Amino acid sequence: MASISLAISELTPGKPHKIEIAGKDVCVARIGDEVFAIGDVCTHSEASLSEGDISDYKIECWLHGAEFDLRDGKSLTPPATEDAEVFVVTRDGDTVTISLNS
Ligand code: FES
User: Fold this and answer.
1) Which residues form the Rieske domain (predicted)?
2) Is the CB of 49 under 6 A from ligand 1?
């Protein structure tokens, strides 16, 4: 399974980060000491979610304002109607590892 590991200190809280795992763009978000990983593709019209804004546990697409729950990828507000992909994040001390689902 493809994965990438980073130090949690590399992730600024409240700011989305774009990473690539095996050619797949992933948006990583740190909220406090929690880290979430969501597909970096808005399900509305494929804008990059890592260019959006984070508030609470939501990320808002910069293009038309759809919001997704970072915890489970749920589409929360239109115009997106499909959920975003989410990825497994594990933590070992100060290291977080994000893994593709297959
Ligand atoms: S591309 Fe994200 S809301 Fe339209």
Assistant:
1) 3-98
2) no
Whole-model pTM: value is 0.95
Mean pLDDT of 4-29: 97
Query: Is 47's C-beta closer than 6 angstroms to any atom of ligand 1?
Result: yes
Closest C-alpha to 49, from 30, 70, 79: 70
CATH classification at residue 25:
2.102.10.10
- The count of domains in the chain is 1
CB 43 within 8 A of CB 84: yes
Give the residue carrying structure tokens 């933590």: 91
Question: How far is it, in rounded angstroms, from Cα 9 to Cα 15?
Answer: 12
Q: Which domain holds residue 19?
A: 3-99
Best residue among 27, 45, 68, 82 to mutate for probing ligand 1, ranked by most atoms within 8 Å of CB: 45
